Protein 1
Amino acid sequence: MPAPEPRPGVLDITPYKGGASKAAGAARVYKLSSNESALGASPAALEAIRANAEAPERYPDGSATELRAALAALHGLEADRIVCGAGSDEVLQLLCRAYLGPCDAIVQSEHGFLVYAIAATGCGARVVKAPERDLTTDIDAVLAAVDSDTKIVFVANPNNPTGTWIPRADLLRLRDGLPDGVILVVDAAYAEYMDDPDYEDGFDLARNRDDVVVTRTFSKIYGLGGLRLGWGYCPPAVADVLNRIRGPFNVASTALAAGLAALGDQAFVERNRAHNAAERARLVAALEARQFVVTPSAGNFVLVRVPGDGRARALHDRLAAGGVLVRDVAAYGLPEHLRVSIGSTEANDAFLAALDGSAP
Ligand code: PMP
């Protein structure tokens, strides 16, 4: 009997593979494969998670009222325009589901985050990848890739897995160059790690326009990836659309409580940012001292070039055998690179020791 037929596009998806979390035979595992928070989560968030464990029978607040109010206050936004999701992944998926069909297209950069292409393909839409320059989003190439089918342009800023970013002027030029009616999604999952005055997380743009969506996550600097919590700042009409199609209780109560507590502990965010900046600089220097080429990264990870056929994968496997898990980024069109998340000082030392072939 033939299998039931899904919607057009669904079977064209190559399923997303998350970073490995197990290393067979290793006594101690250091997971540097998923860009998770090096310092875990804020103690305040952990306390909120424990407190929330008391009443799992209660449905969550499907409107995420308190959390949206806190996000709006922290970032100077309008709470009504915020839509929460089970990770920012869900917000990205909802956007595709709401606005894309089989005759439509999205544009993203060549080595952009994979979920955009997966979500769009699942809606039967065409995915157009704009070539990058120096592993960085090239605004002119993105604009040139837009045609009359384009409904959404996705830009991760900073981008995963390259770690590169575009300054405010480029972001504005991109939006100005897009036709009316095309939604620009600025995925700012790593915004909290940024400290350059030329960086624009997208909110300034989104505040004044009805065609810009900014997505954010609690999975990175807030250390809540396992709870699945993200959000989008949308034009009012887009928020209305997403609220119609999302699940009525799409974010779990524990995630809402932890997110609220985490937002209240900005000192933890600052500690995590400082740790990341210091450890990233240390790791880059150590890698360069070992003759590796490292792409300048603004995120909590670095992209390391391992030139030669199959050499990146071989190094990945050798590190894994020593208990250090990094990310193979061949699926991103980067078969000669590895992505290494910035971990705790101990994890980063273990990575360098495994790289040198000594026991971590
Ligand atoms: N955008 C980017 C650029 C990412 O790297 C990630 C996580 N890997 C996400 C979005 C999704 O994160 P989450 O669904 O955990 O919020």
Protein 2
Amino acid sequence: MTAPAVAAFRGQFRRTPDLAVSAPGRVNLLGEHTDYNGGPVLPMAISRRTTVAAARADDWRFASGEEPGAITVDVHAELRRDWTDYVTGVVRELQAIGAAPDGAHLTISSTVPIGAGLSSSAALTVAAARALSALAGRRLDGRALAEIAYRAEHDQVGVRCGRMDQTIASLARPRHALLFETASGEITEVPMPGRVLVVETGRSHRLTGGELNARRSECEAALAALRARWPELNALCALPAASLGEAERLLPDALFRRVRHLVTETARTRRAAVALRAGDLAALGELLVAGQRSLATDFESSIPEADLIVDSAVRHGAYGARLTGAGWGGAVLVLTPEAEGRVVIRGIRRDFAAAFGRRPVAWTTRAAGGVRRERV
Ligand code: GLA
């Protein structure tokens, strides 16, 4: 994993990097769009990682394995509107806390697919935050790295995301998912010993703006409207399920459905953590399918490819499946009994090809660990 980033660094800059750091992508088992609404999320890191190889320098030059040549970046100028913005965002946020080097050369290489809803951007920002702060001689803990990475994406790049992706990329533990209560900041490890299947819809969704920002505005509008009735309500996920009937009368239909998704998803996510802790994968699977239905009908962030993969997975023997990540494209996570994996994947491939005329990319992963130093 490290080798390509280090080899790219040597090829690009004609020297050995001072260090290399990698951070994982993630799948979210349950808790979609709850992280910017004060609710819980249940992500796990995947085995696909992004590696940053870096060395101290007098200027800032960034190179990606995907493109030839290094880009010289003025980190104080306007953002370039490409992948370097994520690294520049990290540099600026580290500078704000006095934890950035004076300059750096870095190369990145990644096995996290981009635009597949698997959080390639958080893998990059978290790895860059750890690498660059280490070059400055600073050792930031996992929460601090997640916060720098979050601000880079949210405040600098302008994606109105929550904190789930950066938190799991930073703090993940092998063979565990994390139950992250975003309102309190409490994080609990939940054992996740098995494999999950990831099926890419092949529809790419890049998050720089677009639907996620639009949904967030809808959530803010819904919260403002509900606070006229419940002034103490400080986040949509805190609305009691028993108040949904009244909320329906107060809100336009689309906003009500967004709220209903968040309230039911909050309950599902906490129940999912209980099911996982009990090793009850069948119960977890049912929650995944209920979550998918809620995404499709209430949050309206699913796409036909994902709906088909979920239906097909269940028909061929999966415990459950669900579009993971922001949506409007991306990947479906499928939970199957260990012995049924092959049958399920073959069935999905067949059904998907019949409907969309192509075979989806699919692979399995275990819950992996968070950001770490790699050998150079
Ligand atoms: C994106 C965001 C996350 C989260 C999910 C939806 O991945 O980066 O913070 O909001 O969408 O659950």
Protein 3
Amino acid sequence: MKKNLSDIDRSRLRGRVVLVRTDLNVPVEDGRITDDQRIRASMLTLRLLSDAGARVVVLSHMGRPKGQPRPEFSLAPVADHLSRLLGRTVAFASSAVGSEVRAAIENLEEGDVLLLENTRFLPGDTSNDPELASAWAELSDLFVNDAFGAAHRAHASTSGLAEAVIARGGEAVAGLLLERELRYLADALQDPDRPFVAVLGGAKISGKIDVISALLPKVDGLLIGGAMANTFFRAMGLETGNSLVEEDRIDMARDLMGEAGERLLLPVDCVVADEIESGVETRVVARESVGPGDRIGDIGPETRRLYAQRVRDARTVVWNGPMGVFEIDVFAEGTIEIARALADACDADTLGIIGGGDSGAAAEKAGVADRISHISTGGGASLELLAGASLPGVTSLTDA
Ligand code: ADP
Ligand code: MG
């Protein structure tokens, strides 16, 4: 177990410079933030530190500027947005290291927040340069890593900084968001209440093979949907028409089916169309009756019913990946039905966890997001955790 910010006595924070790595990597178009979810998710920790009277120095990356300053990836608009959410002025330093940063920290009063410019404007961040990590570690003896979305990468502003702070005798702890993500995606699944059901969908098997392998021995049921199911259909010798299939994963799908036996469920019917486009005419067919010109866009109504029932009967559910092309209304029904079933289950005290960007968006679209036990803020990092991997951003922290 790792030390958490919530383990630290608040009286120890007053007046102290605290470095916080958060994930403020939000989409910005023409200087406007189009989705502020990650900023809002960071607020818990920032507010706690500010309220406790810490002098808060925030590090984050945005986009992939590849080690040089690129104005379109500046965090300046995020500082303004943070100010509004926090209800107090957030200072901004136009660099992430150096004399300007040190001077800005000197000016911080108790409870003040300073946001540094994009850490990835420096080539040393993604290359995990120990000198860059040390330069940051000189600024404070307390580092809070709250960047769950970046925790699967070993970068100077994540694991490098944690190690450097600890090497100097300081502490590196998990922020409130990171602590919560670990509680749900790692701890809760160690010894889950049963039945334990995983619902996996999305575009590709290849990106989720490790998750399937890690979950298979633990689950009572693994419900497959999305385009991923098509590759399994091919492994069964079924026609999939013009649907998305990963030809090079068909053998792997066959092996997984052998290993899983009855615990692996595949759709029994599908929603198909000539094209995957909005407004197209769709048909429902049994999985044995997909035609050579068809494209599978969603699970069918019988599958929806079967899967929803399994979800409602479960005590623990993990869901990653939509059941169909949910961005298009005529192929969204399967995903929405799963989202609703999961919300109903959560209302009845089932632990329901959504890991991954698109499934979280689907729960929002279905209007049930606030009823789900936990929706992860990190796509790649949550997949790594579900696959049983340890994250550098976590292993580098101080032991509890
Ligand atoms: P997540 O982000 O939840 O992990 P993925 O990124 O793996 O999910 O997959 C999401 C994408 O999969 C969505 O954009 C969705 O449109 C697509 N998808 C789901 N089902 C199908 C299908 N039958 N055919 C084509 N694409 C699909
Ligand atoms: Mg995705």
Protein 4
Amino acid sequence: MDLCNLSVIKRLMTEAGITFRKEFGQNFLTNRMIPEDIADNCADTAERLVLEIGPGIGCLTQELALRYKRVVAVEIDRGLIPILEKTMAEYDNVTVINEDIMKVDLPALIEKYADGMPISVCANLPYYITTPILMYLLESGVKFDTVTVMIQNEVAARLVAKAGSSDYGAITAVLGYYGRAKRLFKVSAGCFVPAPKVDSAVVRIDLYSEKPYVPKDEALFRALIRAAFEMRRKTLVNAVSAKLPFSKELLCAALKAIGQDENVRGERLSTEDYVRLADYLTENK
Ligand code: SAM
């Protein structure tokens, strides 16, 4: 069954008595080549567990099932479950779970299904909650190998931005702590039903197995990034001293110690710079 075919999508949904739910960010793919490409790019080896978030009616799920050893798909919309039971019936390596991904105990879920295999995430993410889901995955403590997601094009630009560019933001600096993101390809809004307002892009994040730089105080590292980007137009010294209990003098000394100008803005600092800044502040409190 071609689960990207518009008449198939409509028939399955009518039979199940459901319609698209905007509040769940439901924009289903209607071009079969796209889930094929996403699944191809999701990981380099087949022997793995792939966690899919938001399978919808299963167009990407079936491509993942054909390529990878085990697929666990977490779908929030109860109305889609009877459809998935039908469309996934022929794939005995797929498990569908009716849950909100943000409420799933990820380490427990992975422990149950991974069987020691490497773990990847693959998803056409619901756009209303893209960044929280990415942060939930990254901060879960689960050792994901790759995270391949379709997201809004402008969020994709943020994830791959270089320090100093206008797209560089808090999410870029935090992401750089966990891994390296690469934009794979763009997908136009016309490839979905209903069509979203903006174009999308597929991004693959390769997570570090060993992080290249680890702050002594991770909470401070995060707080610094949050504070620095909350008031983007201010200098880092002004933005951080307004939010955190560090004097401007100490912050100027910290910037000098890591080779930065005291008037620098937060968007100029790389992840490594934030780690070094946090460490200086930890050591010189
Ligand atoms: N994978 C399908 C596709 O590519 O056509 C559907 C993708 S659609 C953009 C997003 C999917 O995520 C929907 O099926 C939606 O119901 C589901 N979803 C939304 N919020 C979710 C959440 N918090 N947890 C799990 N699934 C969610």
